[in-house]
Design brief:
The structure is a homotetramer of 379-residue chains.
Chain A: H1 2-21, H2 26-34, H3 53-66, H4 68-86, H5 89-94, H6 100-112, E1 117-120, E2 136-140, E3 143-153, E4 161-168, E5 175-181, E6 186-189, E7 203-211, H7 226-230, H8 232-260, H9 267-296, H10 301-327, H11 337-345, H12 355-366, H13 371-374
Parallel strand pairs in A: 1-4, 2-4
Antiparallel strand pairs in A: 2-3, 3-7, 4-5, 6-7
Domain Acyl-CoA oxidase/dehydrogenase middle (chains A, B, C, D): 118-208
Cofactor (chains A, B, C, D): FAD
Domain Acyl-CoA dehydrogenase/oxidase C-terminal (chains A, B, C, D): 238-348
Chain lengths: 379, 379, 379, 379
Amino acid sequence: MREVRQMVPRMRERAFEHDRDASFPKADFTELREAGLLGIMVPGRLKGLGATFREYVDVAYHLGRGNGATGLIFNMHAGVTGALATAPDELAEELGAADYPARRDEILTGAVNGSLYAVAMSERGVGSRLSKMTSRYTRVDGGFHLTADKAFVSGAGYADAYLVAARNTENPDTVSQFLVPATDGVTVDPTWDTMGMRATGSHDVHFDVTLPPAALVGGVEGITMLAAQIAPHWMVASYAAVYIGVARAAIESAAEQANQRNLAALPSVRTRLGRADAAVSAALSTLRHAASLVDAGDPDASTWVWRAKLLAGDAAADTTASMMEVAGASAIRSGNPLERLFRDARCGALQPATSDVCADWLGVAALGGDPYATSEPRW
Amino acid sequence: MREVRQMVPRMRERAFEHDRDASFPKADFTELREAGLLGIMVPGRLKGLGATFREYVDVAYHLGRGNGATGLIFNMHAGVTGALATAPDELAEELGAADYPARRDEILTGAVNGSLYAVAMSERGVGSRLSKMTSRYTRVDGGFHLTADKAFVSGAGYADAYLVAARNTENPDTVSQFLVPATDGVTVDPTWDTMGMRATGSHDVHFDVTLPPAALVGGVEGITMLAAQIAPHWMVASYAAVYIGVARAAIESAAEQANQRNLAALPSVRTRLGRADAAVSAALSTLRHAASLVDAGDPDASTWVWRAKLLAGDAAADTTASMMEVAGASAIRSGNPLERLFRDARCGALQPATSDVCADWLGVAALGGDPYATSEPRW
Amino acid sequence: MREVRQMVPRMRERAFEHDRDASFPKADFTELREAGLLGIMVPGRLKGLGATFREYVDVAYHLGRGNGATGLIFNMHAGVTGALATAPDELAEELGAADYPARRDEILTGAVNGSLYAVAMSERGVGSRLSKMTSRYTRVDGGFHLTADKAFVSGAGYADAYLVAARNTENPDTVSQFLVPATDGVTVDPTWDTMGMRATGSHDVHFDVTLPPAALVGGVEGITMLAAQIAPHWMVASYAAVYIGVARAAIESAAEQANQRNLAALPSVRTRLGRADAAVSAALSTLRHAASLVDAGDPDASTWVWRAKLLAGDAAADTTASMMEVAGASAIRSGNPLERLFRDARCGALQPATSDVCADWLGVAALGGDPYATSEPRW
Amino acid sequence: MREVRQMVPRMRERAFEHDRDASFPKADFTELREAGLLGIMVPGRLKGLGATFREYVDVAYHLGRGNGATGLIFNMHAGVTGALATAPDELAEELGAADYPARRDEILTGAVNGSLYAVAMSERGVGSRLSKMTSRYTRVDGGFHLTADKAFVSGAGYADAYLVAARNTENPDTVSQFLVPATDGVTVDPTWDTMGMRATGSHDVHFDVTLPPAALVGGVEGITMLAAQIAPHWMVASYAAVYIGVARAAIESAAEQANQRNLAALPSVRTRLGRADAAVSAALSTLRHAASLVDAGDPDASTWVWRAKLLAGDAAADTTASMMEVAGASAIRSGNPLERLFRDARCGALQPATSDVCADWLGVAALGGDPYATSEPRW
């Protein structure tokens, strides 16, 4: 996993172009694939790297230092494989998913062999509320037919397969998940045109495909979000790592520019760098601690994950804004890394769980309440 | 001057396109011209609107609410005409500028008749340090020959004339100012590609022109920045007005989006709007007070101008960042006014005098020192 | 009213002792009385100073610079007299209060003659909710009998008379107000022992008194808070002035200490002073604008008053905290003005309407709602 | 070391009185002594608890949660014993201090047996600049005579012995350290009357004593600050732990008060608690990481220690200020734990290294400079 650190300068060099063109960071993923990092969360018995979550967040942090968009795309892949790798077999067994272990291993082995997975869960105007999901599947001869209109699919058009959630047409309460290979019935609608994190290409994707039985994740209907239920850290903490990396990149760039322009003696430059360094380091410490607790199955893990997300989103936004003041007016020029980092970083606190939601969640917890039950709903 | 208020919705509608294409807001200036606002700072005796500085800052504020870039371009024009209109005749007289009143009135009348003036003072790598200026002029038969490479010329290519500073080739200590009409020898080099305030088109402009004697501002060499010496408010306070307008536009847009999406009951939405409203209103109050003192020739005017600049730059950056959290993830989509306002606003504190410089200046003043003599140099 | 400015150094000298002992600032009020300032809000026809609200806030600001506690006590007096002086006669007439003008003038003349009035409205555990008020009065031969347990009575034991609200025993919906002279039946229970604003002596006061008919304010029962309904600015904006004065005093003291200890060249000292100066000046500008709108009867006055309160409370707390960092560790020593100002200032945002309530109120207003109807209740 | 956690409620109960009276928290130290915690930093071979620095900071954190003043006094003792316990024998050997190991063990054994050590290094107007130190010692028959006027001696009058630095009268460049038992020649001048951390009793102490040779720490002259040179973490990081504990205590108290008064549903209460919880947890994570690096002898340890100090000082001040807004106006009443915690917490950023110094130090480090060489001097 040390390769990621070494990739950082090369990713940075390519980041400008991908941001400008909102293009997929192909070369970044070629490097990640070649380094075997698509198998990062896959256990050693399947020839993956078998990373812990604690190890993963450091990888995500360095990806964020290189190119935040690459980090976010990779995150979805790591989330799919990481959640599958850590989902307890017993859960699947209880649900009667006899094929689960075999099917899971197939997916994980695919990752080791270089398949990049994307997640197609969200729908426009639905957010993460499953109850409003319009995507449907029907049992047909030889498998399933799936029609789905999904949004915010990071890596759209470049993933090798998509994890798609849909309802059973006849029994809408049953929501199942399918791994859909990138084939003819998968159409990308290039809707992603944003201020920041442009290169994630989180476009809309339309699915109209017939799938073999093996495409049903876990081999049984109704296993939704195996991952999400047991692994909220994949929805919250792994984003945090990327944004902390973005913030660190801003500090590094601002320091470099200040040195180049002989501004290092300016007290305002020093104090801005110093305070930013402390804030970003604090977010990183918090996240690493959260990740260790996740690995240990500690009941406090959730609380630390929410803390890390709040700190990361805020530190990323504040730090990049301040680092532009270090560099001065030249920081707004296209091509200056700081202006891209500033735009990318602003997305962090807005990604669910937003900073305001995190703060409310943590406040309820501090009051001794049950934050999952009573915290301010938002997305 | 009420017309400006009514222009706001139309300016807003056009702002997206000008930002995307980094194109000059032509229609905005057509409207301003038709409303006679190019003559805003010209005295009534020359058929101008004869605005006070206090009245002007409200106009600039509303331009900022409409399109910050328009406000900044207009600002340069208002600065040239405003400084000329208020420069004491005695100063010119002392300098032996017998033609000064007539020449000044010509320029001012030009504005009333619809000429838009731009300012071409800065040079790359020189900042505002006159001592490093490379632009030169020579006396020639029938006037002057001028060669100059200028940077950060807002409205480049669209102004009717440019106020250019240059040194006398034979006597480099003499810096004079010329009003150069937009003719063949004026070439725009489209270098302005920035994160924010894209539509100001503050490109590099190269001058290689022969000018009649009447082009010499004030009719006498060596009158540099008549304006700047006596009118620091044009360099600092008028920017502030535009950025406060940008911040207000963000509040208005966020409130509109929150209402449309039924988020008005969310406490975090309300508290963000409330705190932003207070901060922006405070900056506006401070600026208006500063402008009144400028008009009154009050010795405290400078201090209040620096306060206003600091507050405006910070309030603009903080407010637009917070308003994006009100609107949520949709705020980063291209086309959402908030993402443009966020990028535009970030430029405020970076424009000289930067927030850090303002804070230092004010700190020295609070300590009873002479801030012009001892404050931290920076740009 | 210029005398107040000159009183500042003398008030400051006495402030330490009054804070330490939580004692009433007698000498301050002797000076205020001698300068005729107890009649500040009384119209000229009654030989008062006839100050506008705009003029008053400057007086309150300077009192805050001298001793915040004196400012808050004076505020209650100014509120009583100011509200009476500006209450429209028509309102009283409608209510059948024939004697109203005469009785009002008596009270106002009392102030001109040197009577200090205190306000005894709040009750423990009741806050400002009139519906839970336990104080009662009964009509008796020759007037009224009143029994009341009041809390937070600034100036308790030193006021010449108290404005007390109570319910009619027989008709509890009728709440009336009485001006109760400081006599035997008025007992002070010294409950005020606080971190800040110690010298206000806002103790509990118990009333068990028989009053002549003339004690009934306005001469008619049921006129409650004539003032409060029409004059929210007395409940919110006038506090703001005092706390802005406290914040300014902290800047002045920090600058003085920095100069004495040769710290003026330290950049962190300068930037802290500069930013504090801008924030405090902004709050002051906002408040002055609010006060002008109050005087003009402008419908926007309320919104500006809430803005001023929010800004004042936050600026006072933030500024005094930062100024302690200017002075360094010596600032925590008893006797250093900054440690007192820091404790006093922290009370500002906590006094109703708290900063959080103000922010919510302003947020609702920014959303186009009716903040009085829908804003977060709190006190 | 778990006992400390259990002591917290009892320490809290006693804290009010010690703060009010600025009295030494005797019962706290009786408990600490009985739990063997005075030997916390003493190695197991001498029957101490042999804590790592990482373990120590958790103890200091919990002491801070109980009573910050107790934590700070204990800190000095832990610093003396911890620095001695970890000082490399080689250093002493090089200096020819043959008796060093034996003498060191005596001091450490004293701690295990219940002796509380205080530090008497600072002098008025000298700060930590050894070059201006006025304390002197002379060799006399049977040992040394020492005269010293020291300031900021936490635990003055209650320590069993004082670590005192002084110059050799004949050779003022030689600064030595003595462990002076609390005897007749040690006089406490009760100068400590402060806003916060009142119970540390950090009074001036005057020494006029004759000492046996064994009082010379390390048995050799010129070993100054054995500790400080090799262990900056004792000067910076251990304070941080106490202030983080103070901040956590404020959150706990505010949550308790909010629940008691049914304010838990208020969004502003929840968001304040949530954000404070994240900030304090981040400071704690950072400190714990710093402490682990100290134990590992990692070269990055210093940087993390400065980060922790900056975060702790700021989080303590900000958190306690915000928690008062959670509790509302009742928080300013004497007896409310929050008002004491607020006053205590404000001292954190002011204690060397101040937050401004830390920020500058970290900024220089971020720029790749040598912060010890070039950072802004201050104390």
